[in-house]
Amino acid sequence: MTISESSTKQPVVCVFCGASSGKSPVHLESARALARILHDNGIKLVYGGGTVGLMGEVARTLVSLSGPDSVHGIIPQPLVKFEQNHDPNDPNAHTIDESIFGKTTIVKDMHTRKQMMAREVIEGGPGGGFVALSGGYGTMEELMEITTWNQLGIHNMPVIVYNVNGYWDGLLAWVTNAVESGFIGENNAGIVSEAKTAEDVLNCLKTYKNAEGRFNLTWEEQ
Ligand code: AMP
């Protein structure tokens, strides 16, 4: 489904971010700032469903402001025991308090999660998109996959890196070099937008214009 086919009930932002909090408090602060801007603008959140690290912080903060219906976490079954707080007296019991973290859906694998998250953003319509806060390999993998889905025309929603204290400078420099070196086309150079503050994130969500010339693949063809 493309944006033109989707309903525009309430925009949805998908946040990719670390299962860790990082060493500097600026990363947790940026997670909270992002949640506040989503709340102020009536934007819903879909995220990886964890209760730990930056993931837990952005979900917890938004639920505290906008309520549990504003957040949907989608977590693959094998990750539940690592990324959701569980009862230390019963290592097999993993529960999430939906009044704190929002609705949670457990899915079979990573790909199902990513497809579901992307569909919610697309169906939310204009004003939504994908935002990467600071994170590690998992965040990078999710960010790059959703960027390639834009390049392929599977979606046409904005992809934004929230570049806290230059955290994503290396990635942005790599994109510039890849364009200059001829490995990323000029028309794809702007798929990933940079935001330095939560307000910048909102601005990128509102002003993003998709470039022409995508393949317009469907889910089935990926
Ligand atoms: P990280 O940025 O490494 O802290 O990971 C952030 C989140 O990305 C993790 O909590 C996982 O839910 C998710 N993740 C980790 N590895 C992958 C992967 N190979 N594909 C998709 N998502 C992943």
Number of spatially distinct domains: 1
Question: What kind of oligomer do you see?
Answer: single chain
Order of helices and strands: EHEHEHHEHEHEHEH
Tally the beta strands: 7
In CATH, the topology is named: Rossmann fold
Largest sheet: 7 strands, parallel
Q: Strand order, main sheet: write it out.
A: 4-3-2-1-5-6-7
The number of helices is 8
Strand content: 5-15%
Q: How far apart, in Å, are the first and last alpha carbons?
A: 13 Å
Top-tier CATH class:
Alpha Beta
Tell me the radius of gyration. Answer: 17 Å
In one word, what is the shape? globular
Secondary structure class reads alpha/beta
Report mean pLDDT, rounded to a whole number.
91
- The helicity comes to 40-55%
- Small-molecule components bound: adenosine monophosphate
Judging by the overall fold, what is the CATH architecture? Answer: 3-Layer(aba) Sandwich
List low-pLDDT spans: 1-6
